[in-house]
Amino acid sequence: MRKLSYLIILAGVLIMLYPKGSEWYNDRQQQKLLEEAEQAYSEIVPSASAPAGADLSKPYAEVTQLLAEESAAEEPEPSAAPEIEVGGKVMAIIQIDKIDLKLPVLEGATKANMKHAAAHMKETAPLGAVGNAAIAAHRSRTTGRLFNRLNEVGVGDTISVTTGKQDYNYVVYDVTIVEPTDVSVLKGNDDDKILTLITCDPLVNPTHRLIIHAKLS
Description:
The protein is of the alpha+beta class.
């Protein structure tokens, strides 16, 4: 009887510790990628220009679907989760001081790349170039992880993007909540250098996408 009581107590303790363990694992992976990004600056290469007038409907639909799938998935157990393998190259580091965010940006918005990092949609404009450069990241339920606090960003805030050779400071001019199918958020023009950040909204059971638009200052 006493052994059963101990087992019940142990199970209760493990259940209470699980969220912290999962948070620790995810933070460790995110920090690992960030350190690798900073060390890889000398190897960063600019992304190729997106074709003018390219149809972004399909790649945008794939990105928003990945965002929805990750939001619905359960967090992996720290002991069972494999080491992350990313396929994209490090492009930059994105930083938003207002929400204490600093993330590596990988080239290609794939499932692997977006697991623990932000990802540049390679079909959109290069960072710092004329057009609309889009970066997507998951809205993790862990406070401060990935784009968890992106909803706190407002008009007038600064988003910094650092590559191996250049620092870009974008100023937010628009914050919107849109349908997952609204590809118009990726529209650009021949004059402005726009940065678009994409994530899910609301945080739990998301039905829409949170979009942050900023211009290079």
